[in-house]
Amino acid sequence: MSAVKNYIDQNKDRFIEELISLLKIPSVSADKAYEKDVLLTAEAVKNYLDKAGCKKVEICETPGYPIVYGEHIIDPDLPTILVYGHYDVQPADPIDLWDSPPFEPIIKKTELHPDGAIYARGSCDDKGQMYMHVKAFEIMMNSDSLPCNVKFMIEGEEEIGSPSLEWFVERNQDKLSNDVILISDTGMISNQQPSITTGLRGLSYVEVEVTGPNRDLHSGLYGGAVANPINILNKMIASLHDENNHITIPGFYDKVIDATAEERKEMAKAPFSLEAYEKSIDIGEVYGETGYSTNERNSIRPTLDVNGIWGGYIGEGAKTVIASKAYAKISMRLVPDQDPDEITKLFMDHFEGIAPKAVKVKVTPHHGGHPYVTPIDNIGYQAANKAYTETFGVPAIPQRSGGSIPIVALFEKELKSKTILMGFGLDSDAIHSPNEHFGIFNYLKGIETIPLFYKNYAEMYSGQ
Ligand code: BES
Ligand code: MN
Ligand code: MN
């Protein structure tokens, strides 16, 4: 057994307990009610980094929640890895749908996780995956085998669009300088088939408000003669896709770089069962843009989705009313080279343009982010692939993901470095959903694979 594996074997119970202690703190960045807990979590992460042996650890203030920064420089001639992760989590809502309380972690065995999985908000996204890096660092420190300099940057605002990150990165270019960025905040194909995320979608997120009459009206007295904002909003939203599920906003696809036939052929080789996919989320059939496969639809194609819609009477029983206002939150996932600001502008112009005169429309932009794709012919990718091959016994498959981590494109722009996305979660881990969980196998496999990335990267770097 390798020294790393041996160390994990002897310390795994403590590794799990430490993660559980982090998961107990409800660090929900979106809700001010949890402000104290978010700050407490930053402290806890700082303490764990200290304890793992990181030389310099500090809590850096920002206009929002602080960033935990750690630095362990052993030799300026060695390459430097910047590890990014986030200690904040999504709100637990809808809380009624959890089988156990979201901030009281429990371990349960499932078909996909026969060794058990930790159930708690943030277990996979991203406390569990972030903490793998702290433990991998501890192992390298304790076995005197840290082969690179390392910097940690763990933020507390990822789930609300990282509003302070640009501010922080612009002001700390030297502090954050690195040779490669390493992030575990994505997923892999399965516990038998690792993959490396080579792309992320960008995001444009808007909220729309449709106003009809200046007050709620009796739907009998006024019904039929006045535009109902809820009816109108639904009609407008429905018109945003055509019969092929193509988005109808003029100019929306102008900057999309189509995947080549070769790329699409490569993508189709990844193991995927449509039947298992449909079964796992209990749907009769998949649905999406004509001409594209399921894996293409959720990675290389842009989308437009309503994330929430409300208005009118939603209490018990029936109330006859035409509401004055209707609202929706809409996200557009973007692919290279779509620009989030441009897309937001196109959406606003179009949405305001299609509104009938009978209503007023207001569009408010929320956060956004640029899409990202990374080539695989660099030593970062190769070091990761070799590490996976060593711990899983099979090479990783490069795969573009549908999710967004807006800071990845920002890092490339500001720090000029490439990011390697070594995710260990599964799509079925229910991130952002009730009953989020993270497999013990995945957690420990991550801790085992990360030191090999460091080792391979250092070797490949010096051989360049
Ligand atoms: N870790 C996720 C993103 C992710 C998950 C990417 C799985 C690929 C695979 C991240 O925490 C997240 O939720 N990002 C948000 C965007 C953000 C601006 C709120 C998202 O993708 O919705
Ligand atoms: Mn995340
Ligand atoms: Mn998330």
Return the average pLDDT rounded to an integer. Answer: 97
**Fold-level CATH name of the largest domain:** Aminopeptidase
CATH class of the largest domain: Alpha Beta
Query: What share of residues is helical?
Result: 25-40%
Number of domains: 2
- E-strand count: 16
The CATH homology group name of the largest domain: Zn peptidases
How would a textbook summarize the main sheet? 6 strands, mixed
Radius of gyration: 24 Å
Name the bound molecules. Answer: ligand BES, manganese (II) ion
Oligomer: single chain
Q: In sequence order, what are the helices and strands, one letter per element?
A: HHEEEEEHEHEEEHHHHEEHEEHEHEEH
Q: What structural class results from the helix and strand content?
A: alpha/beta
The name of the CATH architecture of the largest domain is 3-Layer(aba) Sandwich
User: What strand line-up does the widest sheet have?
Assistant: 1-2-6-3-7-15
Question: How are the SSEs placed, and which strands pair?
Answer:
Blueprint: H1 3-23, H2 35-52, E1 56-60, E2 67-72, E3 80-86, E4 106-108, E5 117-119, H3 127-142, E6 149-155, H4 165-171, E7 180-183, E8 195-200, E9 202-211, H5 229-238, H6 261-267, H7 274-280, H8 294-297, E10 303-311, E11 325-334, H9 340-354, E12 360-369, E13 372-373, H10 379-392, E14 397-400, H11 407-415, E15 419-421, E16 437-439, H12 440-462
Parallel strand pairs: 3-6, 3-7, 7-15, 8-14
Antiparallel strand pairs: 1-2, 2-6, 4-5, 5-16, 8-13, 9-11, 9-12, 10-11
Helix pairs in contact: 1-3, 1-12, 2-3, 3-12, 4-11, 10-12
The structure holds ligand BES and manganese (II) ion (MN) (2 copies).
